[in-house]
Structure prediction request, 649 residues.
Amino acid sequence: MTNILAVKNVNKKYKDFSLKDISFELKQGYIMGFVGPNGAGKTTIIKLIMNLIKKDSGSIQIFGKDHIKNEKEIKDRIGFVYDENCFYEDFKLHEIRKIIAPFYSKWNDELFYKYIKQFDLPLDKKVKKLSKGMKMKFSIAMALSHDPDLIIMDEPTAGLDPVFRAQLLELLLELMQNENKSIFFSSHITSDLDKIADYITFIQDGEIIFSRSKDEIIETYAIVKGANDLLNADIKESFVNIDHNSFGFEALTVDIPSIQKKFGDSVIIERPSLQDIMVHINAARRKARNEQKHI
Amino acid sequence: MNKSIFNIIYKDLYMSRKIWWLLFIPSLIHFLLFEALIVSYTGESLFYPYLTSSLYVLIIIACVQYLDSKHNIFIHSLKITRIEQITAKYLLVIIVGLINTILVGLIGGLLKLIGISIMSFISIMDLISTISVLMCITTLTLPVNFLLKANWGLIAHIWALITSILIIFFYPTIDDIAQANIFYMLIKEIKDFYTNYLNCFSFFMISLTLFFISYLFTTIFYIKKDF
Amino acid sequence: MKILLSNSSSKPIYEQIVEQIKSQILYGELAEGTQLPSIRKLAQELRISVITTKRAYEELEKEKLIETVAGKGSFVASQNKELMREKKLSEIEKKLSEIIRDSKLINLTFDELIEILKFLYEEDMHD
Prediction:
C-alpha cells in the first residue's frame, strides 16, 4: 500500500506560532480529514505541502517523490481547492478555463463541462459576480477537471449550504470508487468527516495530536455521563477531560473497559462524535496550559 | 523556453488583450504629437515614439504582474515553478517590447509612404535603443514587483509614462526638467548615444547585463518567498 | 441484500454489517454464489468509511461466510450444509427453551403445548 502523501518531521517557525515536528501519512485510495481549531496550523500545513510556503526542516513526499524537486510533475496530478477564491476576479469563468487548461496534461473539457452543468455555473459571468458558494463550486470544478490523483482541499464546505455540502460529499464518494484516488481535506465541519473520512489527523497549537483511522478513534474514545458524586481523584485519572454542570458530568475517556468495570450501569457510556473528541481534547489542553501558567 | 513558460506568456497576453487596444490608440496619438513637436523644433527625428509607446507597454506588463501577485496562491498552485513565472515575465518585456517597436515602426513607415513624413522608418538603432531602455527600467521595477509590492512597480511605470506625456508640454524647457526627473535624465542620455552605433551597442550590452543580473537576483529571492 | 445501520447502537458499525450479512446468509436470504457489492460501493451507499466495510468483509471471510476473488469481487461462499443445519438446530432449541419457560409461567400443560404446535404447523403448511 503506497503512501500518496507522507509528511515527516516538518517544522516551521513564525514569530508567534510554530509548527512542531509534523508527521502523518495518507495511503492511496483513502480519504483523510484534517481537523483542528482555528489557528491550529491546518492552512499552514496545506500551504507547506503545496510549496507555497517554505518549510524550515523535514520532508514532504507526494506520490513517493520529493514535493519540491518534482514540483511540476506532482502539481500536474493534484487538484487543489483553497478556501478563499483565488481566481482572477475580473475574468469570466470560460476565460479562466482558457487560461488554466493548457497547464495540465490531463485536462478534460468533457469533465469540466459536466461539472459546470452539474453545479449550474454561469460560464459567462465574471468571478467577482458569483456568490461565495458558487465560487467554491467553480474552484472544485476546476480542480477536478484535470483528473487529479490527489485532491487537496482547505475547508471546502465552509460557507456552503447543507444541500450542496451533501452533494459535494456524494461527489467525493463517487470519485473514491476509483481506488487510485486519494483525498486530503481540512474542515471544521466534523459531521462531514464523520460521514466520509477514513482517517483523521487532529492538529492543535501546531502539533499533531493524533493521526488514525476514524473507526479506531470512535471505538477507543467514549463519552461518559454520570452523577457528580461519582467523581473522585482516582476516577478522574481515567478521563481525558471532564465537564461538569449542576446536574452531572460529561467526560471523555480512552479507557472504556476500566470505566465499565468501575461504574457498570451507574454511568452512560456513549459512542463519541468527532466533535465531542475535539472539544474535550481542546479543553484538556487549555486547562493543562493554564495550570502550567500558574505554577 | 519550455511549454510552461510559453503558457504563462500566452496567459499574460490573453489576459491583457483588452488593455492592448485601450493603450495602443493613446500611445499612437501621444507619439505622433510628440514626434511632430520634436521634429518641428529640432528638424530631427528621434526614437522617442518608440520609447513612449513602449512605456505604455510596460504598463501592461506591470498590470499583469500586479494581478499575478494578488493571486500568488493560485499561480503557484498551478503546474509551474517559481523560476518559470519569473522567466516568463522577463521574457515578456523583451517580446512585447519587440512587437510594439516593430508595429510602431511599421506604422511610421506606412505614414511616410502616404506622405505624412513625421518619423523615420524603424532602424536597427531604434529597435536596439528601445529594448535597452525597456530593460533598464524593468531591471529595477521587476524585482520590486516580485519581491516587494507589485503596486509599487505599477506606480513606477505609470510615473514614467506620465513623465513622457508631460514632456510634450515642456519640451522647449526640457533641460531644466532633466534635473528633476530621473526618467527624463535617462532619456536625455540615451539621446546622445543614439547617433553613434558603437555607443548604441554598448548601451545595449550594459542594459542586457543589468537585466540579466536583475533576473538572477529576483530568482534567488523569489524562490525563498512565502505566500 | 439488506443492511440497516444504527448510529445509536453500542455495537461498532463493522460488527453490525457482519451480523446482518451473516444472518442473511444463514437464513438463506443470500444465496450461495451471490456477488456482494465491492467494499467501496458499499462504503459509498452506506456513507461510511471504506476501512469499515473492508474490516467487515475480512471478518466474514475469516468465518468462511464469503470468499473474495482478486479482480472479481466477493461472493457468498458455499455453506457447509451440516454446519448450517446444526446452527439452526441450536437456535431452534434455544427458542423452544424460551417457549417452554413462558408456557410454564402460565401453567400450560405439555399436551396443550403440543396442540398449539400441531395447529400452527398445519396452518403454516397451507400457506
User: Anything to note?
Assistant: The mean pLDDT of chain A is 89. DSSP finds eleven helices and 14 strands in chain A. Residues 40 and 204 of chain A are 5 Å apart (CA to CA).
